[in-house]
Write a structure and sequence with these properties.
The protein is an all-alpha fold and 101 residues long. The protein contains 4 helices and no strands. The protein has one domain: F1FO ATP Synthase. Helix 2 packs antiparallel against helix 3. It is elongated, with a radius of gyration of 21 Å.
């Protein structure tokens, strides 16, 4: 159930950039879920391929590890971007208010 007092407390705690922090948190969650789905898809297809052709297992496993590492790298980069956006949001809003005011 929605309680407006919780929203008011959040506004007092985070000020004008509370929704920006929420957006960064949601973005981080979406990035992690997408990476998990991608790595799961890669692993499932690799296991299926190895079951079909056991003699190619080494090459398939190597390709799977490289693909998973690339996904992890992109995920880490996206998480860093979300965290930097959340941490620097207050500075950005202060700059916007100076220009507007």
């Amino acid at each position: 159930m929605f309680d407006p007092t919780i929203l008011a407390q959040g506004t007092q705690l985070f000020g004008e950039f509370g929704l920006g922090i929420l957006g960064a948190a949601v973005g981080s969650g979406l990035v992690v879920m997408g990476a998990a789905k991608g790595i799961g898809h890669i692993a499932g297809n690799a296991v299926e391929s190895i079951a079909r052709q056991p003699e190619a297992g080494g090459r398939i496993f190597t390709s799977m590890i490289i693909s998973a590492a690339l996904i992890e790298g992109f995920t880490f980069f996206a998480l860093v971007v979300c965290m930097l956006a959340a941490m620097n949001l207050g500075k950005y809003i202060d700059d916007v208010l100076k220009v507007a005011g």
